[in-house]
Design brief:
Helix content of chain A is 29%, strand content 27%. In chain A, the strands form two sheets. A five-stranded mixed beta sheet of chain A has the order 3-2-1-4-5. The chains are: A alpha/beta (220), B alpha/beta (333). The complex binds zinc ion (ZN).
């Protein structure tokens, strides 16, 4: 049995999903009894509540997947810190994935077209990622207008996801753009992604690190 | 392995240092690890909150592992994890809080959100019981400036705090104006010791109870430097330090007159100031109370003080959740 805890950190409240062998058993975005959860910022209590609802113990979790952004600075760091620490505490792997892998997967399912994934950054800058063929193939940080034209050059038709969906459509009035309607991905989506936990899962002293404007995964 | 549940792990990440410590119920410090970020921030002449928070994410788990291994303990030895929940920089607090929450959940150890100020107030009793109660405590650092009365370790009354800048901030800003770099405290004190207090800077709120204010003094220094042709910087530093000391010592004297006290405790980074140490010693001789100056490593931000405060919470059965609270006052748990 592989009990995976997924933490979606793009914004608060956090998204939390629990699943066994790819089947979602708990999804915090669906209605559940929140009476023992007085503070929505309390991620530990939310995870404990989810485990209680599906009748599992913390020690039964076999891997933790966490969104390392790009997304809200505080929420991403909070969720990543929690995931790293819980993984160390349980001596299990932590599996970092990007916000764009999640939203790209969801948006791609809708139209089977390349997806331009977008996220806000500090001081009016943006993160953009191009999701195609089941993976994020390019990722950039910078001024929205500039990196939008760089990443969409040569793309005839595509889908847009994330925070800057309408801005991208305004910037490229002549392109054929589909609005996915997706602002942030859902924690449960991770269960559908073919994430190679054994290969990409990190064990302490290796930890998940939030994406920032100096991250190596960004293209020049 | 030691006795089950005999130790507390303290975690402190409210500002720019990632600190972890293991402390027993008697205040004995088994280990205290501090991963400092001074180099990262020296470049900016102050704390850059975004980088502080980023650095905590990378530093915190290795610091915890190091602390456990130095103390030669396992998580089964822990009665609780105490973690600073405020006041502090939100991005930095969040990293410590969520790390503590994750570890506590993984280890099955309770996690308590601690008021950073209560940590400072208890810092003087680390390693040995130094404080003679009832005590007046002056906390002066980059983040805080206040006077409090402690009847005993659990019974605390706030007497007065700063309405604007902390003493440490005033030092840092004046240090920058004098071109001395960051942090400002030691360099300004050093320069001041070579000059004479020839400039009559204001002493804000000197005759006003036990509250403090330092932004007017800082502005006065800035104005003086702008308006004076070829100012003698060491005299400016000496005049600034004299004004600060005058305010701090006047308020301490007033507090000692108002409250029957056995000791005056000075904690916080500014307690390193040689001027403050010698003038506080003189005041205590005059007032016939004991001066308590804990070792500086417990006086600046550290996790051992958070761990010792955690024992107070356990004894009083107070268990705030590890979620951030930026507006805590010292009377809050
Ligand atoms: Zn402090």
């Amino acid at each position: 049995m592989a009990l995976v805890l997924v933490i979606e950190t793009s914004s608060r409240p956090f998204g939390v999903a629990l699943g066994i062998d790819g089947n979602v058993l708990f999804d915090s975005s669906e209605p559940f009894d929140k009476s023992s959860l007085p503070d929505e910022r309390d991620l530990a209590l939310l995870v404990e509540r989810g485990l209680q609802i599906i009748g599992k113990r913390t020690s039964q979790i076999t891997a933790i997947a966490v969104n390392i952004g790009p997304g809200g600075l505080g929420s991403v760091r909070s969720g990543v810190s929690f995931a790293n620490a819980l993984a160390l505490g349980l001596r299990i792997p932590v599996c970092p994935f990007t916000a764009f892998e999640l939203m790209g997967f969801e948006a791609w399912k809708k139209n089977r077209l390349p997806v331009l994934c977008t996220a806000r950054a500090a001081k009016g800058s943006a993160y953009l990622g191009l999701y195609d063929q089941g993976a994020v193939t390019a990722m950039k940080f910078g001024a929205l207008e500039e990196i939008t034209s760089e990443l969409t050059a040569g793309l005839g038709e595509f889908t847009v996801a994330g925070a800057y969906r309408s801005s991208v459509q305004e910037l490229l009035p002549d392109s054929k753009i589909h609005d996915s309607g997706i602002r942030v991905g859902q924690a449960r989506t991770f269960m559908e992604m073919a994430y190679p936990i054994a290969e990409r899962g990190k064990r302490f002293p290796h930890i998940a690190i939030p994406i920032n404007e100096q991250s190596e995964m960004l293209d020049e | 392995m030691r006795n089950m549940e005999s130790l507390v792990l303290g975690i402190e990440s409210s500002c720019d240092d990632t600190a972890v410590a293991v402390v027993n119920a008697a205040g004995q410090v088994l280990t205290s690890v501090i991963a400092t970020q001074t180099e990262i921030h020296a470049e900016y002449g102050g704390i850059y909150p975004e980088f502080a928070s980023r650095a905590h994410v990378v530093a915190i788990l290795p610091a915890i592992e190091q602390a456990l291994s130095e103390a030669n303990i396992a998580h089964g030895d822990l009665r609780a994890i105490g973690v600073t929940r405020g006041p502090g920089l939100i991005g930095s607090l969040l990293v410590g809080l969520h790390t503590a929450a994750g570890l506590g959940m993984g280890w099955g150890v309770p996690v308590i959100g601690i008021n950073h100020l209560r940590g400072h107030l208890r810092s003087a009793d680390l390693e040995q019981a130094r404080v003679k109660y009832p005590a007046i405590i002056l906390l002066v650092s980059g983040g805080h400036t206040f006077l409090a009365q402690m009847q005993d370790p659990g019974k605390i009354t706030l007497l007065g705090s700063t309405r604007d800048d902390s003493v440490g901030e005033a030092y840092d800003k004046v240090g920058r104006m004098l071109g001395l770099g960051y942090p400002g405290g030691p360099v300004v004190d050093k320069m001041a010791s070579q000059g004479s207090p020839t400039v009559a800077f204001p002493r804000p709120m000197l005759h006003d109870g036990l509250e403090f204010s330092f932004s007017g003094l800082k502005s006065a220094v800035s104005r003086y430097l702008a308006e004076t042709e070829a100012p003698v910087l060491k005299d400016v530093a000496a005049s600034f330090v004299e004004a600060i000391m005058d305010v701090l010592l006047t308020k301490c004297r007033r507090a000692l007159l108002d409250w029957r006290s056995a000791s005056l405790v000075v904690v916080g980074g500014v307690a390193a100031s040689p001027q403050l140490r010698s003038q506080a010693a003189q005041l205590c001789r005059e007032m016939d109370v004991e001066l308590c100056l804990p070792p500086l490593r417990w006086s600046t931000d550290n996790a051992a003080m958070i761990a010792l405060a955690t024992w107070d919470y356990l004894h009083l059965e107070k268990y705030p959740r590890p979620v951030p609270e930026l507006q805590l006052s010292i009377s809050d748990y």
